[in-house]
Amino acid sequence: MRAIQFSDYGSSDVLKLVEVGVPEPGPGQVRVAVRVAGVNPLDWKLRSGVMTELPLPRRPGLELAGVVDAVGESASFEVGDEVFGWSETGSYAEYALASLLTRKPEGMSWRDAAALPVAGATALRVLRQLELRKGEVLLLNGASGAVGRFAAQLAVELGATVIGTAGERRFADLRSLGATPVSYGAGLVERVREITSRVDAVFDAAGQNVLPEAIKLRGTTDRVITIADPRASELGVTFSSGGSGERSSELLDEIAERVVAGRLSVQHAWTYSLSEAAAAQDESATGHSGGKITLDVV
């Protein structure tokens, strides 16, 4: 099968399209014929070696959507099931193994399905960790990104007031979602205080050293969560990593139900072919894609 993998850490140049053997599912696993793979910042951070060095060679890709092609012992899916979820062997490939999946709703596109496991589930998980409630004010850093845009919609659905940082070219989109946009960068505290006298919770989905200002606006580190700033512990802030212990098919089902019902929209930025994985990661690394980046594998 065709797959993208890297045998050295470095720039996107280390990504190579190679021919490798088709993996066989073990107990509880299924093999998925991948239709679409999601591209995430973690993909290029791992490739560059800036987060942690892992055994090589390595195949990138956390998110997949596709068709079950083979099943292992005790797997809860059947051959032919259309599914989406988290890949265990890297989703930048024609086939991948997975166990934490859910069935793709009829009528949901492959690209929408591949966009949900990381960004959609992360947004829902963190809002629940914040225990956000109706009538509260949420400061959302990175509101126009893949995670932030989902979080803005979910928070508005809860009945919260959302103040979201973004570039000015994303303001109209955020307003259409029911959020109040503000420019990021120097002077954030003053700009937010012109809008509200209080901030009940902070969701940092973008990093960019916003936590000190966010803590000042919140008045405490309580109910301040980041998924993007590795200095969280130094500042006394919770870092939500989204590790395997925080993933569930139930989260995927909840997000998918909202998408199908039209209560949650997915913003797509760019779609690349499998052979263009390097360009896709480079686009993700700019931080300005304005939506989900995916790879069409088939």
From TrEMBL:
The entry's keywords: NADP
One of its Pfam families is ADH_N
Enoyl reductase (ER) domain: residues covered: 10-295
Q: Which SMART domains match?
A: PKS_ER (SM00829)
Q: Which domain of life is it from?
A: Bacteria
SUPFAM superfamilies hit by this protein: GroES-like (SSF50129), NAD(P)-binding Rossmann-fold domains (SSF51735)
A GO molecular function annotation here is: oxidoreductase activity
PANTHER family, A to Z: QUINONE OXIDOREDUCTASE
**What protein name does the entry list?**
NADPH:quinone reductase
Species whose genome carries this gene: Actinopolyspora saharensis
